[in-house]
Amino acid sequence: MTNEIRLIIDGVEVHTQPGKTVIQAAMDAGLYIPYLCYYPDMKPYGACRMCVVEIEGRRGTPASCTEPAANGMVVSTQSSVVQELRQGVMELLLSEHPHGCLTCHRVELCGPQDVCLRHVSVNDRCVICPKNERCELKDTVRFVGMDMDTPLNYNYRNLQVEVSDPFYDRDYNLCIVCARCVRACEEIRGDSAIAVIERSGTALVGTSFGASLLESGCEFCGACIDVCPTGALVERDFKWEKAVQTVNTVCTLCPVGCQVKLEVDKKDRSIRTIGEIDAPANHGQLCFRGKFGMDFVNHRRRLKMPMVRREGELTEVSWDEALNVVAEKLARYKGREFASLAAPGLPNEDAYLLQKFTRMSMGTNNVDMTSNTRPELLEVLGDILGYQAATGSIWDVEQAQAILVVASNTTEDHNVAAIPVKRAVKSGSRLVVVDPREVELTRYADLWLRPKPGTESTLIGGILRVISDESLEDHDFMTQNCDNLNEYHGGLWNFDLARVEEITGVSEDQVRKAARILAKAEMTAILYALDNIDADNRSSLVGALVNLALVTGNLGKSGGGLYPLLRGANEQGARDVGCSPNVSPILNQALQEAWGSALPPEQGLSVQEMIDGIHGQDIKAMLIVGDYHGLLNNEVKGALEALKELDFLVIQGLFEDDLTELADVVLPDSAFAERHGTVTNMERRVQRLHPAKQSPGENRPGWWTIAHLAHKMGFAGFNYPDVASVFDEISRAVPQYAGMSYELNDSVQGLQWPLAGSDSPITNVLYSQGFPDGKVKLRALDYHAIAQGESRGQSLILAPGRVLHQPERPMEIVKSGGSNTIVRVEYIGIHPEDALDLNISEGEKVEVVMISGERLPMTVEFLPDLPKGIATNTSLFGQLMVELQASRDPLKMFKLPSLPLTPVSLERVT
Quick one: pLDDT at residue 38? Predict the structure, then answer.
């Protein structure tokens, strides 16, 4: 390898690359050097001095975590000088940490109920520590070879154990002040919720603001817990439980697709989730969902047996009997009267067989995902560029010099995907956010554009106009890769900036600034969720964003590109394998060849069209597979009422709920932690699921159910002995998955489609070799189609926001039932002219009347920079965590409240 460094560590020749430290070179070679403050992916700290080494020809004992590896270096990690120094440092550490057991020869034989022969106080015993048997400090003590007796005594700090904040406990009596947690929060996550503080002359770790995590801006990701080497920070649930096995799998709670290590105890319960540090999808990071939201797999209310409705009541039956009922009833509803829906996290194999069953056996294209409420996010990309997918890997965004985020609450809905954005900004990247709401990323933004709702396409059109007028386009890229240039430029003439400002409420100056930031950067990444954009405006907005990526030359290279932030955990994979009402012509042809029969010719119905079709008696029977929370929280409008009108409804899920109350047959599903399969994340990465625990009863995965149902109904082509055989068919039938195998996906890397050759190199960046059909067509923006109806004279529109921290707003932490909660005055911000029209004064108390009839007491504040017609209220993320902690709903992490734009009225409090 070019510029390879060779050094000797304890007599072993080690090869490494320039820029790596001695400890990194040793770890890469499988050699162990003890450490406590060092942690991968964090900057060298050199505080604990456990990793000191001797280097031939050098004086002193440098810390290997800060010492750069050099060619020809000869390193000793176990010399007498090094060992003596480590033992001395460890004695000092143990003087500030309970160590009665750490220096006892009986520790491996001792249990929590045993009488301590040394009469060590309870607070000093490892066996009562929640991290007993998984403590890095204990392992380091053993490796260093400490004497069984230490001359230094430990004085218990008598600090209050913090147990009132959501999800995890903090016992700083056990803290060794390695500052890993502080550095993980700041360096890896881009936050600053915790810090090293001084208390009574002693350095300790604490909250950056106040005494509670709720007031310090914590996002409850658990990164600090995962890096803590002692029991100072631990998850509250299953705090004392010990793991008997650890299994790698993939979190299916959002489309980032984080790889996790699930720890399972002797009672076959999933007790802890830890991010896989080597996984490129998440680099060891998780969010509050993945860290604290997995307990639903253990819940006692899980469905365990099939049930059939008889005389109005659901009655437990065998699988054979349940499938016989389903087969008999569904045979009456072939064709357009039947529809099927897949859950957001349904694995690829289940989604593939569901659409195959729907098309091949039931004769209809009425198949979709319950989360597919914003299909334009991907469909427009496919229409213009060729692939319905993100163009790069999400962590490459950290390399971008400019980032545009459009209509997305990224830090909550796609939490780990926000990390490279925040890290990029802290490294000097410029961030532009387009959103009328105040969300966490607006606090990192160089430029926050708050257009009137429905005018976002006009705003992007104005940015494109400035880029064209100031000749900021990448002309070489456009000439080589783009058609329709004359029509595109002709359409821009309508986007006069004065008119754009009038329509959007964003000033000409801000539009120009945004255009220059985005166009002058060598690499610009565009992230968009469109979670508050009307369906009528999404297609034009995505088209404008694609134009922006093309004219600035930001496709086909790492760090730039387009990143649609999808709703469903496996929405990318389900769409890839055909689980959508309208597949591309290429996939249509491929499926016909694989199945040996033509697909139904009629256009299929989307999820919302299906629900609407039930009311019109077009849809009479439905099969829903997986967790269907989008149907319960009104993401799909009117779903619950419509499903009551079906002649026959079959649901396969995890729990009884409002939907199973409507079902004629209920089938128990397997949770992600109980099954094999694959899922594809938002960056096209296909990853393997592995079972960590047993299903609680007669639960079966969806692919098994569909295959056996097809067999009951007499349909050929569904004979699959296992899930691997289903994926093998997918790799043959789906062009993007060509060359993949079930075994190839079984690594922490996963595989990003399409594979580029016989050696199966993954494709990190799409379009690096050009576009599939040659040149692509820039969309000519139709100004009149975009602008019409944008000023609709609606009532006040509430744009609710949510952020981690608002230090400018007074707040109080109050205990309720032993748990901390937030008490503060909530404000409704409006434009002064709107207040004048409503005859409302600043500081006046009002009730905000929601469209549902709910009334929220707030205090008025004037925001002159806010567009007229918009009201805004920004709540704290910490309060949401309090509510989640208190919720008894096993699927609470699936049902997080979103931040939709909604009409409201203000009524003065008399």
Answer: 93
Burial of 409-434, coded b for 16+ CB within 10 Å and e otherwise, reads bbbbbbbbbbbbbbbbbeeebbbbbb
pLDDT value at residue 2: 61
Token code pair at residue 404: 């545009």
Mean pLDDT of all residues in the chain? 92
Stretch (H or E) spanning 618: none
Whether the ω angle into residue 754 lies within 30 degrees of 0, i.e. cis, is: yes
What band does 790 get if pLDDT is binned at 50, 70 and 90? very low
Contacts of 62 (CB under 8 A, 6+ apart): 52, 53, 55
Residue in 72, 74, 73, 50 with CA at minimum distance from that of residue 63: 50
Residues 6+ apart with CB under 8 A from 399: 424, 523, 558, 559
| CATH number corresponding to 315-373+570-752 | 3.40.50.740
Residue 788 pLDDT exceeds 60:
no
Mean pLDDT confidence for 210-228: 94
88-144 residue pLDDT tens: 998 888 888 887 787 777 766 776 666 675 566 666 778 788 998 889 998 898 888
Tokens of 32: 């162990």
Q: Report which of residues 110 and 859 the model is more confident about.
A: 859
The pLDDT of residue 152: 62
CB atoms within 10 A of CB 781: 24
Extents of the domains making up the chain: 5-144, 168-298, 315-373+570-752, 383-564, 793-908
CA distance 426 to 448: 17
**Is there a contact between 472 and 765 (Cβ–Cβ < 8 Å)?**
no
Is the CATH code 3.40.228.10 the one for domain 383-564? yes
State the Cα–Cα distance between residues 857 and 846, nearest whole angstrom. Answer: 6
DSSP string of 503-558?
HH---HHHHHHHHHHHHHSSSEEEEE--TTS-HHHHHHHHHHHHHHHHHTT-SSST
pLDDT at 241: 93
Domain 168-298, second-level architecture: 2-Layer Sandwich (3.30)
- Are 788 and 799 within 8 A, CB to CB? no
Q: Distance of CA 18 to CAs 69, 86, 405, 636, 910, Å?
A: 7, 27, 35, 53, 71
Rounded Cα–Cα distance for residues 620 and 645 (Å): 8
The domain made up of 5-144 is a member of CATH 3.10.20.740: yes
Q: With contact defined as beta carbons under 8 Å apart, do 682 and 564 qualify?
A: yes
Summarize the chain as % helix, strand, coil (round to 5).
Answer: 30, 20, 50
What confidence score (pLDDT) does residue 119 get?
Answer: 61
pLDDT-derived band of residue 792, with 50, 70 and 90 as boundaries? very low
Query: Residue 307: which residues within 8 A CB-CB, separation 6 or more?
Result: 314, 315, 316, 317, 322, 665, 666
CATH architecture of 793-908: Beta Barrel (2.40)
Residue 333 contacts by C-beta under 8 Å, 6 or more apart in sequence?
362, 620, 621, 647, 648
Question: Which residue intervals of 437-484 are DSSP H helices?
Answer: 456-469, 475-481
**Is residue 410 within 8 Å of residue 424, measured between CB atoms?**
no
pLDDT in tens, 143-166: 888 776 666 667 778 889 999 999
For the stretch 404-430, pLDDT in tens is 999 999 999 999 999 999 999 999 999
Residue type, 70: A
Residue by residue, DSSP assigns 115-132 as: PPTT---GGG-GGGSTTT
CA–CA separation, 620 and 614 (whole Å) = 6
Q: Which of 661, 56, 63 is nearest to 314 (CA)?
A: 661
Comparison of pLDDT for 41 and 700, the residue scoring more: 700
Structure tokens at 50: 């456990």
pLDDT value of position 690 = 97
Pairing type for strands 845-850 and 855-862 reads: antiparallel
